[in-house]
UniProtKB/TrEMBL annotation:
One of its GO terms (cellular component) is cytoplasm. GO terms for biological process: NADPH regeneration. It comes from the Eukaryota. It comes from Ignelater luminosus. Residues 43-161 form the Gfo/Idh/MocA-like oxidoreductase N-terminal domain. InterPro entries: Gfo/Idh/MocA-like_OxRdtase_N, NAD(P)-bd_dom_sf. Signal peptide: none annotated. This is Gfo/Idh/MocA-like oxidoreductase N-terminal domain-containing protein. Keywords: Oxidoreductase. One of its GO terms (molecular function) is nucleotide binding.
Amino acid sequence: MATIKFKDVSQYKQQQIPREDHGYNKYVQHIGMQQKSENCVVGIALFGVGRAGVIHLISLLNNPRVKLVYIVEEDKSKWDSLRSYWNLTETKFISSMDANQVYNDKSVRAVVISSPTHTHEAIVTNALEHNKAVFCEKPIAENLEKSRRCFDKAKQVGQPLLAAFNRRFDAAYSSVRDRVRNGEVGHVNTIKVCSRDSPLPTTEYLKASGT
């Protein structure tokens, strides 16, 4: 009969949400309006509004727990357009020459770095030295030793330093890893996954991206 395929328990009753599913956990928090003990707005400074920076800008503006205090952008010709398009009437635009304003501003709790690769290490170090959390596009610095120094600095000052290797925290990717380690899928020689940014980066971008 055609209905035989429905003989099993509904998949909706079988469904189990992994505890690591950050997106679902946030949904539960928001739908129930569950407030944590500290539910304050976090002041953020964004360095660079280019290819990756626009992605981070959208995420920051969509987060009700964030106040975008500064945008640090070298191309001043973008400032008015960014301010108008995103309605950034309370965000201060500065160039990197004035970045000390960010570091010395105690209302800025964290910085997001999406500026050119060669600028990352200095921004990371300065932000950490001024007791600010850091999220930085990869790479953190231009070589392994410099990157290690950045993470050593983060440990020294007791602030988080996060690199944009987000796939390792994706619940689907973690599930694949765990199932392989648990022997659920037999002997595995190779696993190939693919993730591509959109839009396709320009040649000029790739020359300086450090990837």
